[in-house]
Amino acid sequence: MKKLFYLLIVPFYTFILNAQIVAEATPKDSLIAVENNTINLQNETLDNLSWHGRRFKVTAGVFFPTNNTEVEVGSNNGNFGNLIDFEKDLGFKKNTNSFTAAFEWRISRRSRLGTEYFYLKRTASKTLQKEIEFGDHTYPIDARVAAFMNNEIVRVTYGYAIISKPKYEIGALIGAHVLLGDVGLRLEGNTQAVEYRDNFDFTAPLPDLGLWGEFVLGRKVGLYANVNYFAIKINDVDGRLWSYNLSVLYNVYKNFSLTAGYTGLNIRVDVEKARLNGFFKWGYNGPTLAATYSFGGHVKFYKH
Prior knowledge:
By secondary structure, this protein is α+β, with helices and mostly antiparallel strands. It has helices spanning 2-24, 27-47, 86-89; strands at 54-63, 66-75, 84-85, 98-106, 111-127, 132-134, 137-139, 144-164, 168-187, 197-216, 221-234, 237-253, 256-272, 276-298. The protein is elongated and about 70 Å long.
């Protein structure tokens, strides 16, 4: 009987002792352990998304914009030029293609710096259907003219994530589009003596404010959107702009992704120079295709 008693009491005592040890573990320790496990699982999951939340991102691609351009250039002696529709009056093609490039550095979980570059060179030749005054000269009806427009845009932005979650971010940005423009006309005559030309070049720094959002839609798919607007007068440049972008990213392999999007920009600039004054209005919108390479460590996201 004693042997049976010992066989029953020893396992029972062991069970009580183990239960006491578990009971003495504080709820705080349990919550910390659960929280650490959740964060580790969360970070491990995000680390599998090689394209999301990386320190650096380089993008290069092509842009297929549809353009609308109006230019007016007159002299400062009181003579005003015609308002010229470059597509309608000078034969410029509305649909063109261009090269774009961008670089982004995520300084921290909420802060990022970015730069973008865009270049578009356009030329056209046409027999005029109406008289055009441009700069110091008048280009008559039926005259054969050659025209050009070269535009470069350099953009610098700082973005701050007001909401920063593992699967989505929404924030504000401040930056500037710097437009370097050069437009001109040349009369093509039968002899060198009757050939003349005019051109008008300018640099317009145009600050902008905007909102942006970045969303993880799946293990290989992401979405990015932004919209910007600003108007300002700086010395002899008076301008305003608004722009927008919506793009979808697809992760092809590890750090390499492809993006497809739709981008638009509308700029109006009034410039007064020493000899000439000009009005420049340019808008474009169209699809973009680009390749993106992300590298560097992942930033750490938190659910709270």
